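#help-structures
NK: newbie question, is this the right format to request a structure? protein is Voltage-gated potassium channel
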Amino acid sequence: MRCVHGYRHNPIKECPREAEEDSAFCPFHEPVGGKDFERADLSGEDLEEAYLSGANLRKANLEGSNLRYSDLSDADLSHANLSWAHLEGSDLSGADLSHASLGSSRLDGADLSGAKLIHADLSLASLENATLASADLRGAELYGANLNGANLFSADFRGAKLYGVSLTGAKNLRYARFDEIVVEEVIGDRLVRQGKYSEALESYNRAIDVYLLLKKLFAEQGIYEAASRYSIGEWRVRGKIQRLAHEALENAHVEAFLPLTARFRKRWLAFLEGKLRWLANRFLWYTSSYGESPWRVFLTTVGVILAYAALYSHLGAVEGAESFAENLYFSVVTFTTVGYGDYVPKPRYHLLAVSEAFLGAFMMAFFVVVLSRKVIR
């Protein structure tokens, strides 16, 4: 006797399997939990609307199978092969998919609330409009995955590889957990220690893409504090690339990462440019946290004024200035380019005063730019 399962989403469809003895349903549609299919080869099988709640599917081969609208809640799918499987609209809430292979699978609209996807491979998988509330995706591979419109409430992405992932329109992003230092940067650091500079540069480039993605997403949702963190991460990695540029000069396939001079095969010139760019990167970090902290600019400004005042006082560079307070006054007037004229530098210290005036004009403009970015956002 044929299985009498009636398909909710396709009423004219009939189950092709025979019913089990003493049952009106086949093994997959029988409404009994806890079924055991460990290591079963179910590749390419039509298991649409299967009832597999609490089932043991450890290490099962479900490659290319049709599991649309199936109930896989609380099922054990750890180490299972679900590559190219169709799981649209399926209930995978509470399921254990740790180390499972879900590459190129279709999980659009699936419910993965509370599912364990630790170190799962979701590369090129489609999870559009899926529910990932409280899902554990630590260490998951999400290269090229489509999570557009997915509900990410309390989802844990720490340690996940996010290069190439799409999160357009993702919901509850502010409640999801992401690494402050993305795993691609961590991998790059490890490769540097191993002396694998070209691989490190490629990993750093992926890290920049991830930081840019997260910065954009959080900024679009008005979560500017998180966006600032990822902006800092982006610039930090750029600094690492600039510092490493000369190390990878002989690797032609990484030229896109290198300073322009590196392409002329002049190692010393590439080294010099890389170091100068790195110094500029460090300057931006220490003075403004890569343009994200007006307070750092302000504190840097105060520090510069005090440093020049101390230098003037030590050198006796200002006519008529006897005390530190008078030298400090002259430093403030010079830094702000007010120039009242009541105190003037001695002739041989004119260039010193001019250098402070130039630096002051730059720092004040820099402060306005950084402050404007924060206020406008």
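mod (FA): yep, format's fine, and the tokens are attached above. DSSP finds seven helices and no strands in the chain.
NK: thank you!
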